[in-house]
Amino acid sequence: MFYHFARNLLKFIYQLLFRLEAKNLHYVPATGGVVLCSNHISLLDPPAIGVFIKRRISFMAKKELFDVPLLGSIIKRLGAFPVNRSGVGKETIKTAMKLLREGEMMGIFPEGTRNQGGAAAKKGAAMIALKSGAAIIPVAVVGSYKLFGKTRIVYGPAIDMTDILEEKSSDMLEKATDRIMDHIHRILREEQGLRA
Q: Any bridge partners for residue 62, and if so which?
């Protein structure tokens, strides 16, 4: 109940302030475990990625946010769960795997932190996605949340990891991470080309 109320309220606010719009929502599966993997440019990203999707999305959030009065309890009620800045720990992986195996949807920022310049992505997102067998959907946040400007959330088709899984090489996670980021950057390039 709270999640749906918050989603609708945030959708109204984001559309009003940032003219937020979604593109290619049909790529987001209606059922089953799903990992949404997105670039990360602002603290405003998690709601922006989720407000157009009818399913509940659980995001990993840095552990420190859960200690902030009021904010901590709100994000917990919205389905967020803690992750260490230093890396994805056992408890975080356990929570993520449980969610996905129960057919839930979760959001991950492979870069691990807000980033405008393309820093190296971490392997945690790929590891969780591959181990769970969930669909991996690339997402690109296009724009800058400029007041009354336009920000677009663009979803891509599920990423096929079959060849990487079959290969079972020692650098499997690195290859999977690179593929995820390649798909995100491809969407960004296409969208920026359209806006040029």
A: 83
